[in-house]
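Researcher: Batch entry, complex prediction.
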Amino acid sequence: MDAVGATEQDFGPPSLRKRLSSALENPTFLGFLFVAPAELLLLIFLAYPLLLGLWLGLTDTIVGREGHYIGLENYISLVHDASFWLTVFNTFLYTIVAVFLKLVLGVGLAVVLNRDFKGKGLMRAIVLLPWIIPTALSAICFWWLYDSTFSGISWTLIKLGLMDHRINFLGDAWNARFSLIAANIWRGVPFFTIGLLAGLQTINPDLYEAAEIDGAGSWARFRKITLPLLMPLLTVVTVFSTIWTFADFQLVWVITRGGPAGATHIFGTLSFQRAMSGGHFGEGAAISNFMLPILVACVLIAFIFLRKED
Amino acid sequence: MGEKHKNISRRDFIKTTGAGLAGAALLSSPFKGRAIAAVSPPDFAVEKNPVLRVLRWSPFVKGDGVFWEKNSRKWEKVTGGKVITEYLSWEDVRPKAAMEAAVGAGHDLISGWHDDPHIYPAKLHDVSDVCEYLGKKYGGWEDVCFKYGMKDGRWIAVPMGGPGQEIVYRKSWVNEAGYDKFPTDVQGFIKVSKKLKSMGHPVGFAMGHAVGDGNNWVHTWLWAFGAKTVNKDGSVAINSPETRNALEGMKELYDDAMIAGVASWLDPHNNKAYLANQISVTNNGISIYYAAKGKPHWAEIAKDTYHATLPVGPAGKPTELHLFNQVFIFKHTPFPNAAKHYIMFMLEEEQCAPWTNAMRGYVTPGLKAYRDLPVWTEDPKHTPYRECIRNMLWNGYEGSIGPESAAVMAEYVVVDLFANVCARGVSIKKAIAGAEKAIARYYK
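Model: Structure tokens for the complex:
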């Protein structure tokens, strides 16, 4: 390099080709160059829509009309809107109950599937099914299962003599909320199960053997060995599930569209309804933006644990 | 693009579409006795080789799609242009059109709904020439068309009409309940419905977030009692004795006459329940009848199914709400003249009459002359649907149509008002106060 530099100094400023060649040998510049296409894609497809959403939330944009900056007016208006608070309640209820039950069921299923039994492979594949079926499709199945007239669940219970009337799954506010939570759990459990199953298989069986020799029962082995060793993975899986459940849209939109009387609206559906169906982009964006702090907190937790894993 | 040719002159148009002499038109006209006025069509200088991209709702009945395409091919022959129609589920047209309006790109023409053109009127071409010509020629527009199609004295959309909803009922059960004819007034309607439920045949009307069935039903009911969301000047008017009466009437119907679960019903639920013999009366388009007709396992239902106009309440006049379809042209189209010519062509008698007949009563046109088509009388079960557009009010009645009325409907404010009282046990006073606030958020 020095020799080349000396020659260049001798014969005037370096040519563009040589400057480029020298820059390409600089690891910092080269690194930046390598990640530039990915960063550009992220900027265009993630950062720009995010920033646009934040900006729209500060405007009174209505579809087809240019919006004007109105500061926090959308947010203040939402704080005084009873439907919005009902949506906040629904979203948190939906997320907390669904994620908790998915976690419990997911851990249980993973532990069972981690054991040796006949048809283990087939069972593991079946468990994955709800996860791989498109959400819109499974939502339509649940829509039928919960139908006020044709519900297969009601029909079975009536035929078995356990009930004498159909269950009003989606016409009653609380029934509708828990019906949606059940649908979400059905769909989300496989993610926990398969994720945790992979984690369970990395635990050294010697640890269990040693604990057993020391007289530890199955609950003690689970509490003292399985749970601590699974904790980082469990946290990451839970955080990801929280993000997806909190920002859900399809299940609720297909099954209830937020009804009855707004009793099942969550942030995603209310935002879509006001922005796309109602044409009030500014307000719709503001509703979406209310999700940001929670989602950012989840991302940070996941980030911290993923770094720990590394 | 910049080069525009008068491919279609007025003379060509008259020659090709047969829109010239009224006498000649009458000779082959499907209209019975109504003279079609001899009006010269506007002379559009159709651009050279236009390609029109049309976004419209997926047909509810086969004949609609068949004739839409057939008529489009006819137009292509006349003009040398091309029509590419993208079909979308009817509920999805609005958000897609809204996005296209926002970004200023996409389809040239939209076959959209309700308030759509009033949300972004500045993005649309003036179609006054088309509407004035068609109105003069075909006996004028029904009253509601002026509300939906015009903004500040100009036409911003061409009213096509609407897939109307009327009362669909099982005649034998209504007869068993002691009625020869289906009641036409609200009180009679509640009475027959209660009687039907006591006989094991409840009625069913959507009160969930059903875009069409739910909104149409509750608005019709609200207005029937003389209640309304806003006054002419846009001031909120929902807190009134009339609204309380409407809610009490609906609560009575819900408690004593309806099948359980209607608060969860979306648009398809009532069709399914009716065809499964679970309900005796509902509000719907003519589709239930045609879903049953021709199918051996539903032959009895089809035979027993009759239609009646929606009940009239204390307001003393029909107060119906139906889906309302209109076509509008975005300013971003490179072919505005071709687009205008296309809509005009589609609504000319030669195209529109067989098209409307083929829809078998599903869509009622907004032009009065098409009331005389044989479709409305060839099967008496079609006849009530002829009145849909004539009997309807507009979304946001009695105020004006615009982003506010669209937002209130999209928010299901009126549907939720009724669902809160009927299904969620909210007091009438509290439910009205909630609706009042929700309406006031948009009508500032």
